[in-house]
């Protein structure tokens, strides 16, 4: 049956240089207050960059009249499509070094318009970069090179409809440009949900999740977007292709695997059939504090290797617990959550808490269903989790280095990995800030610069500029 489109319901302005909405960023006073908590930060925040300060040149190509209504060369639109939202990108924007800014931004509304734009670009030597919500942290939305006369950023967010819902098979055909909230709002009236919540959920699209093989917020069972895919439709320079819609198949390599995680290099994902779930009606959560981080790791392993399948099982070390407000006494905090569309989950939470207590954990008061008072540590972490990208940008304006790392390892190597990451990151930061100075920037006050350091070596403190001149690997 057909599904109606949904309006995202907001007229707020997105930040071209940083995360999220422009009006949600910390103001100068909040940035200064955060900087006061860290030794060596700047005396005042770097100014918010202006599009007018960027070296935006005239477009190197002009679309034909038949496509002109889809394309803009507006400087602000071009700047907003120049980079992703990694820490590296934020620093480059603050320093006015946005790299190769696209010449044009196109917003197609259907497959045929995507194909027409690709045909024109191919004939005129124009590079095309698929663009969803712009939350990329690996350089996937950037053009790096000089082999094309112009660059077109292909923004798919006008293709944001749930086109069809199969309630019997509990799946839906969805256009790739649907942002997370827009997608969920269209599924809500049918009592269904995709239930895929990466931290970038509010500002990323279904097509972006597919092109990057995104991982979601949930700890077990369905953790990656791959787990939901039934079929993909992709428009390529050689034509369009649609994989056979199946619940599962053992017939050799899956064609979808060519495009999942491809970062748009092989074609433009325009729509997909996705498996859905009933919206959960039963929820329960709790936090567990640990004085011994290694025992907390053992508790997480015990829960993960049980058949309890928590929706959330996230361990915060003492530093992250303190920054998020989940703990103020140096404890590590385990955040646990369970949910189900059909059966109560209180017993599963109780069993998980028993496993945590067996490893020295102190459990907080569980939160049951929707109306119970929230566990304070869980609530604090959840708020900090959503707010953290904004705070990262505020700290970047103060000269602090704030970034996340993602990796995977088998359980037997977890303690060694944690120790190695802390040691090596500390050593890299020491080398970058303690052994050499970066070229001066006249906008920065002459004051000692910060270093968030958790390695074994303690750096000597020298005057210099904050990190941020490094470039990520070529994609």
Automatic annotation (TrEMBL):
Domain FAD-binding PCMH-type: start-end pairs: 98-279
Listed cofactors: FAD
Region spans: Disordered: 431-475
GO molecular function, one term: alkylglycerone-phosphate synthase activity
Assigned keywords, A-Z: FAD, Flavoprotein
Signal sequence region: none
Single biological process term from Gene Ontology: lipid biosynthetic process
Biased composition (Basic residues): 445-475
Residue runs in coiled coils: none
InterPro entries in UniProt: Alkyl-DHAP_Synthase, FAD-bd_oxidored_4_C, FAD-bd_PCMH, FAD-bd_PCMH-like_sf, FAD-bd_PCMH_sub2, FAD-linked_Oxase-like_C, Oxid_FAD_bind_N
Site feature Important for enzyme activity, where: 314
UniProt: FAD binding residues: 130-136, 263-269
Source species, domain of life: Bacteria
Family: Belongs to the FAD-binding oxidoreductase/transferase type 4 family.
Identification of the protein by name: Alkyldihydroxyacetonephosphate synthase
Organism of this sequence: Streptomyces filipinensis
